[in-house]
Amino acid sequence: MRNVLVTGATGFLGQEVSLRLMRMGYRVVGLTREIKDNLIAVPLQGDLLRDDPFVGPELEYDAVIHCAGHHPGETDEVETLHVEGTRRIVAETKRRGITRFIYISAIGAGFHAPTRFQRSKWVAEQVVVNSGLEYTILRPHLMFGHGSRTFQRLEEAANRPWAVLPESKPLIQPIYVGDVAEIALRSLWLDRTVGQIYDLGGPQSLKLEDVVRHMARDIHLFRILTLRIPRRYAYYVLEKIGRVGPILSGEEWEFLQHEVIRQDSRWLIDYGILPHSLAIYYSPLA
Fold first, then answer.
1. In CATH, what number is assigned to the domain containing residue 27?
2. pLDDT for position 67
3. Membrane-spanning regions, if any (predicted)?
4. pLDDT tens per residue, range 227-247
5. pLDDT, tens digit, for every residue of 81-103?
6. By the number of CB atoms within 10 A of the CB, which of 33, 260, 262, 283 ranks highest?
7. Could you give the number of structural domains in the chain?
8. If phi over 0 gives left and psi between -120 and 50 gives alpha, with beta otherwise, what is residue 25?
């Protein structure tokens, strides 16, 4: 049986990755700080932010899939987990003699990105790129599916006859969490993906208000009033007053300002995947 180490195995994406790996016949070992009821993998107990040795089975692993990370705006310590945590798991990967490493980054990761979340993801990418490992880096846009925190709040907004939204011109391309998990899984055996960085977006380009209306139609609210906060005030309002609607934090809104101008179609060819649209969860826009 082949073994894969998954970080963030109890998280939104990590659970999906773990389930798909097990269905494919892999033994999944999940790195976790404490044993939780929702951990479906064999536990490897350890903390990415501490130098204590990991406690768990000593196995020969085929690969590491590094899903652990914070949500945009979730904490002020985002750099610690993304950068120092990635350094720790890269060092552990090399210590165990593992060569294949798949890292889940984020769309818009870059040195001059607008959010700390994206900037810290970019620094972590550099750690991976310069590690000497056979890496693949995946940069998904906003992921939807069961368990998505952002989409749960969008659903709450869609359940009301009105929603307060920050004014936003950029289009977002929500991608199904199952598609991202499948891409991570296929990276294990597709040699052409080694050394590549892929921007992952779904098949639809939508404004945030269209996403909310999409959901509203699914619950038969055919009319929903959207009140827009002017863009120049949006970050201040969302960050200082809190989530409005409730929908987004200021950091989440900034993250969604990254518009995918040029669709990266290489992953469609390299992985042979047709991404799912929002219609698999919500009725399509009329």
1. 3.40.50.720
2. 96
3. none
4. 555 555 555 555 555 544 446
5. 999 999 999 999 999 999 999 99
6. 260
7. 1
8. left
